[in-house]
Here is the input.
Amino acid sequence: MFVSYKWLQDYVDLEGITPSELGEKITRSGIEVEGIEVKSDAIKNVVIGHVVEREQHQDADKLNKCQVDVGEEELVQIICGAPNVEKGQKVAVAKVGAVLPGGFKIKKAKLRGEASHGMICSLQELGVEGKMVPKEFAEGIYVFPNDAVVGTDALEALSLDDAVLELGLTPNRSDALSMLGVAYEVAAILGREVKVPETSYNTSSEKASDYISVKIEAEQENPLYLAKVIKNVQIGPSPLWMQNRLMAAGIRPHNNVVDITNYVLLEYGQPLHAFDYDRLNSKEIVVRLANDGEVMTTLDDAERKLLPSNLVITNGKEPIALAGVMGGANSEVYEATSTVLLESAYFAGGSVRATSKDHGLRSEASARFEKGLTLTVSL
Here is the structure.
């Protein structure tokens, strides 16, 4: 479990306790803190810049000549080879004199005869693991939201100055597989109170049952299944602060709907799953054991031959998810999704563990179902 020190402060007052001191206290209480990482420790002098002009380098097809505002009196010229750099973007700029991970120092340079005073950075170049980077930025530079402030600290904006504690959890500590679970542990250690998040939402006169019915045929494996229908959804990126928290916890951001389900999983320890309602092609959810030889394609684009012991979520005809493990590609939320079916359920740990083992497939959700849920979310 990766725990963001900054995020933890939302629930527990950590005033006067440094990340290293907190790590020592948690370890002494019985949960080993295996490491504490602050990515910005190895990075200096990286700011948010604004690409004012971009033109192709006259002597290199794959290089771009950019005029960048970094919050100083004059624009700086930076030669950038990223395929996605464009005029108008807010980007991370390592200024001359900056230091990047691995001790890489940024100096004035000439690239094909043109001066370059700095470097426009990808997240990978700032120390973020490639599999955590949002897909749209996986092959190029990172682009901030339009409201990012030019000249300010890019590392702070990306929360790379945060301390992330890695907890080594034993099987009996499933309660610490959520930020709130860790908060209760830390509050007990420090003798302080837990600040539980306040929640509010708008209700509707419409009922989910008008849109979907739920039938559980395998009650032993699935004692409880709840669903809500959310209409008029607009898919887009989640807020930067949420993306930062997901990446710190080892989860790649996708879009606002998928990200909020993962955020709830991390905060409360309760896995959720979002289906594209219109792609279900039915008005029913049936939870059952798979038919022998039944096949489905999961969200990782792998075709999986199911076993009769595998619990599946279906649309009444075909599987749309491996229960508690991974959703199906045929019901995935995507850019055109406008109506979402949101699942919150309890799946028996033994069933999820067996399915996960059968397919060599582990997920953040399966890790929590396997160990047993402690904090739950009702829909």
User: Anything to note?
Assistant: The helical segments are 5-8, 19-29, 154-157, 179-190, 240-248, 256-268, 349-358, 364-371. The first helix runs from residue 5 to 8. Confidence is low (pLDDT under 50) at residues 375-379. The first strand starts at residue 2 and ends at 4.
